[in-house]
Amino acid sequence: MAGQRGGSRDGAGRKPLYDEPTKVVRVPESRVIEIKNYLAESTKTKFNDIASITLVNPSSVMSIPLASEKVAAGFPSPAQDYIDKTLDMNEHLIKNEAATFIVKVASLSMRDAGIEIDDELIVDRSIEAKHEDIVIALIDNEFTVKRLMIESDDNRWLKAENPEYSDIHLQDGQEMLIWGVVTFVIKPFRKR
């Protein structure tokens, strides 16, 4: 079979190092190691449990019909087919627009609290965190999502809701900044 050699094959060739196109540039030889080190650092994960943080911009109103009757977990009665009013999702989910962010989860450390990878958390930075709130915390320049445990003014720690992950107890010199309080979890129950 002449002429059947070569060509592209699935999985063949160099694997991409970055999530975007690259470009060839000339750099001074004396800076090559510095640039390689910079690129290696830039590909490391910056967050522990958080994939992304996005400011909420509720620029439009989305009104969804709200049933006038509460729904049982069984089959609803045909008599419950009445819609009394609509619900604006922005008003329902966002209390303080300027302080609300959507945070995408990147680990299973809160799995047993119903928070999984790629779930989106609505986080309000204007709320004061209380004992057992689920919070976004910043420790050693890394974000994490955990349950805040307050035993006293000077004994605050973060509880993982998955036995495969460790709780976080601050060591000497470590500081914890509560970045925001999780108010809602947005997750699909049906895959598209």
Automatic annotation (TrEMBL):
Sequence ranges assigned to domain Peptidase S24/S26A/S26B/S26C in this UniProt record: 66-182
GO biological process: DNA repair; regulation of DNA-templated transcription; SOS response
Key words, A-Z: Autocatalytic cleavage, DNA damage, DNA repair, Hydrolase, SOS response
Record-level Gene Ontology MF annotations: DNA binding; hydrolase activity
Classification via InterPro entries: LexA-like, LexA/Signal_pep-like_sf, LexA_repressor, Peptidase_S24_LexA, Peptidase_S24_S26A/B/C
Basic and acidic residues composition-biased segments: 7-21
Region annotation Disordered: where it falls in the sequence: 1-21
Annotated family: Belongs to the peptidase S24 family.
PANTHER family (UniProt xref): LEXA REPRESSOR, LEXA REPRESSOR-RELATED
Protein name: Peptidase S24/S26A/S26B/S26C domain-containing protein
Organism of this sequence: Acinetobacter indicus CIP 110367
